[in-house]
Amino acid sequence: MLAPISPRAATEFSGWRIVALAAVALGMSGPGQTAGVSVFVDPMMATLELTRSEVSIAYLVGTLGGAVAMPHLGRLIDDRGARLTMAIVGGAFGVVLAAMAGVTGLVTLSLGFVGIRMFGQGGLGLVATTSVAPWFDRRRGFAIGVTSAIGSALLSLIPIAAAFAIDVTSWRVTWLLMAVLVWTTIPTIAFRGLIDRPADVGQQVDGAPAPAAGEAPRGYTGPNFTRSEALRTPMFWAIAGAVATTGMIGTGLAFHQIDLLGEQGLTPVEAAANFLPQTFAALTATLAVGSMVDRFAARWVLLSSMLLLGGAMVAVPFVSPGITAGLYGMMVGAAGASVRALEAASFPKLFGIPNLGSIRGVVTSISVASTAFGPLALSLGRDLTGSYVQVLLALLVVPLGIGIFGLVAPVPRAPARPRTPAS
């Protein structure tokens, strides 16, 4: 592993460079994301002689196992910084990606899913977006939106590259190639580029001018919730519920996308191409939401994302090749991206920076766990009814309920702190 280089003072504001590096790190989480895993499912099923439901169960077990570590990784970010945490997560992610090349059955596949969901979808995504927050105040939402948008664009290339590599080589070799990609990228970003805080290089938040001689440096004046205090607010659970809802249902739709859209008359190629309008809508929604969080209340973004998801679920039986398939993909992509951008950008504003890693670690744990149930729920629903439509209509109550809850949840009030007596 590369030896760490201590940050050096810089004359130009480094915040936007951190945004770029964090976006690349977020993109490298692709092999652990559902879209990245989805291209491996069918060839692995054939080699390992597993059914779709068995693979879905392995994914559920692995994802739930991976979710357990998220609060601990969040606390590590708060205690030791994003640089060290990203290096640890990236190194471990590469190890488990390499191990995926050697899976031989249901048990080893489940263990592999634990690792790639823990360190890829969960850990690397968490540390990448959290690393940006300390660098911005007035434009934090926009900066995190840019990070998520670029990261999502890079992430969308992973399934394409993996599918090509599987065709040329095999799924086992492709897992090894993904491991090499992560190992050569993430440690370099962590040790050679990332900086934990502006003060580490003599800079100020938002690139503000350094204080004049004799003037106190600008300190943090925003909210300062502890994790337990944040968890006692309804708005935390409204946003966490929205993240979990899009995680569960969106993952189920993505995991079974080829089969689901195949029922509506799309060929496998047309169904795979539906990821393109999803990606386009996700990028647009991420940038829009990042800017909106800086200006508007979170509840309206939450409601919009739940209505988009509900609309996509209702639209499934009406999808056909062409325009309706594109509109469906755009609704799915915008719903998931908007709520993820909402959580990443609004939590620093609502709960503050000092304990952000610990607070977001809980949401990431919930998010990762929620993605475990979507593929299995849709798979079982299809087995019982012969179609995905009925189970999606039954699940419609979830996004609608969360949207209403978000409307009535009050904005968190800063917790009262005991005053320190003057000396």
Tell me which oligomeric state these chains represent. single chain
Any idea of the CATH class?
Mainly Alpha
CATH architecture: Up-down Bundle
Remind me, CATH topology? Growth Hormone, Chain: A
Rounded to the nearest angstrom, the radius of gyration is: 21 Å
How many E strands?
0
Q: What's the number of structural domains? A: 1
Strand content: under 5%
Explain how this protein is built.
- It is a single chain.
- By secondary structure, this protein is mostly helical.
- It is 72% helix and 0% strand.
- The protein contains 18 helices and no strands.
- The protein starts with 14 loop residues before the first helix and ends in a 15-residue tail after the last helix.
Topology of helices and strands:
Blueprint: H1 15-27, H2 34-48, H3 52-67, H4 70-80, H5 82-100, H6 106-130, H7 140-168, H8 171-192, H9 227-231, H10 234-255, H11 257-263, H12 268-273, H13 275-293, H14 298-315, H15 323-351, H16 356-385, H17 389-395, H18 397-408
Helix pairs in contact: 1-6, 1-7, 2-7, 3-6, 3-16, 4-5, 4-6, 4-16, 5-6, 5-8, 6-16, 7-8, 7-13, 7-15, 10-14, 10-15, 10-16, 10-18, 13-15, 14-15, 14-18, 15-16, 16-17
Name some characteristics of this structure.
mainly alpha, 0% strand, 423 residues, Growth Hormone, Chain: A, 18 helices, disordered C terminus
Question: Can you give me a brief rundown of this structure?
Answer:
This protein is 72% helix and 0% strand.
